[in-house]
Amino acid sequence: MPDPGTFLEVSVADALRLAGERQIIDVRELVEWNEGHIPAATLVPLADIPATFEAVVPDKGTPLLVHCAVGARSRRASQYLAQIGYTDVVNLQGRIAEWRALGGPWEVPAQLLTDAERARYSRQLLIPEIGQEGQRRLLDARVLLIGAGGLGSPAALYLAAAGIGVLGIVDDDVVDESNLQRQVLHTADRVGMAKTESAEMTLNALNPDVAVIRHPVRLDERNVAELVSAYDVIVDGTDNFETRYLLNDASVAHRKPVVHGSIYRWDGQVTTFVPYEGPCYRCLYPTQPPDELAPACAVAGVLGVLPGIIGLLQANEVIKLVLGVGETLAGRMLLFDAMTTSFDEIRLWRDPACPACGDEVAEARPMVAAAS
Amino acid sequence: MSQVRIPPVLRETVGGERNLDAAGNTVGEVLADLFLRYPALRERVTVDGVLSPFVNVYVNGRDVRYGEGLETAVGPADQVILLPAMAGGGLD
User: Fold this and answer.
1) Is A194's pLDDT higher than 90?
2) How many Cβ pairs within 8 Å bridge chains A and B?
3) Is residue A239 part of a domain?
4) Structural domain count of chain A
């Protein structure tokens, strides 16, 4: 045992002997850890030690063996740990390469990403909730955007940038000059071009690895089931109630989450419908309202940045749904007022008597869809 | 006196106001006070004297349908939000 407030240093050969009796602490960075590490080690990057170490190792009498790549960071870590009261700290003085050369246990995690993917997504790989596994999930995800318009444009751009593997885009319209004030997927030289085609050009210019699937159709009762069932998450950026109800009922039947956004002049709202876990659109408004409650942008007007803000909140929801982290807006609706720059939040409940997702219809519904 | 947030599609019925102060101790009384002053609002949010199914009312973020409906109590510091279904997606 070292004197109080101090620590011991051992060679790699001695460390190999001590390893079995001590808790091994790896103070390198996550990216280094992902390249390979001692199987029994616990990763606590040097910079995280002050904030997290006492939670990772609560007992200050625990025998510790601290290492990094060459012994410098682990010396600083050992010094710090001894100072805050850890009584049995041993620093591995020497290169971890020597540990491997002497036959010390070592494992290289399965490489989930290619070198190119690691380079492109390096900034989000550093985020603990994403890492290689999370990025792999994003790359394997299939997201369907209903509409390549005001909401779909920003959502699609950022989802493609984040590396969502497959982006399906449903839109039967062509680019109009009046779209360009907010539909940032499209450009002035593409007026008259199909929006799905223009979207594919922009998204692949940004990220050629994303597979853009063009669906130049209008969502209707004949194609909705096939489209919805082929994707993991749906981004609803439509402009009429008919499509929203059609989409709601199909996504409930196929158990697909829908990230819902809508906008009007200076006001936007966003929520996430996760079938059977939270409410669906029909829980809020059981029957389809008359169309005059949904004046199109062409009639009502819309501030261009508003769909930018709401569409990106939708993209954020998609990322969390795919990663399975954080809290989505399921059961909550966020109301954004661009005029006062303020958010309000309301609680939404699943209606047990809902005609789409209520208990009675859920029981009557064949369970095939649940397996997908 | 509580504050009622008027959604954008209904603002034309209340002279463009975003928020209105209204008197009353229940949702029903608060709405009655607003309807008295803004008859056009009543036409848009009620059908045959009852609240339209396309308009939800929230008191402090809670849907009154899951509370006591129009009898839901409203205190002076409470915020009432009227929220009709909204569909715009910026497509055209």
Assistant:
1) yes
2) 117
3) yes
4) 2
Query: Which chain B residue has the Cα nearest residue A303?
Result: B90
Considering the domain boundaries, does residue A112 fall inside one? no
Would you say residue A370 has pLDDT above 50?
no
> Which long-range contacts (C-beta less than 8 Å, at least 24 apart) are formed by A46-54?
A46/A73, A46/A76, A46/A77, A49/A77, A49/A80, A49/A81, A50/A80, A53/A81, A54/A84
Minimum Cα–Cα distance from B61: chain A residue = A346
- Residue A93 sits in a domain whose CATH number is 3.40.250.10
User: Active site residue: A68, A283, A297, A354, which one?
Assistant: A297
pTM: 0.78
Q: Are residues A145 and A95 in the same domain?
A: no
Please answer yes or no on whether A345 and B88 come within 8 Å at the CB atom.
no
B11 touches chain A (CB under 8 A): no
Residues of A in contact with B18 (CB under 8 A): 337, 339-340
Residue A275 scores a pLDDT above 90 = yes
Would the CB atoms of A263 and B5 count as touching at under 8 Å? no
Q: Which CATH superfamily is domain B2-84 in?
A: Beta-grasp domain (3.10.20.30)
pLDDT of residue A363: 77
- Per domain, the residue ranges of chain B are 2-84
- The confidence band for A255, taking pLDDT boundaries of 50, 70 and 90, is very high
Q: A268 with A261: CB under 8 angstroms? A: yes
A89 and A149 housed in the same domain: no
Our measurement of the distance from residue A185's CA atom to the centroid of its chain's CA atoms, rounded to an integer in Å, reads: 21
A372 within 8 A of A232, measured Cβ to Cβ: no
Task: Determine the residue among A151, A174, A293 to mutate to test chain B binding: the one whose Cβ has the most chain B Cβ atoms within 10 Å.
Answer: A293
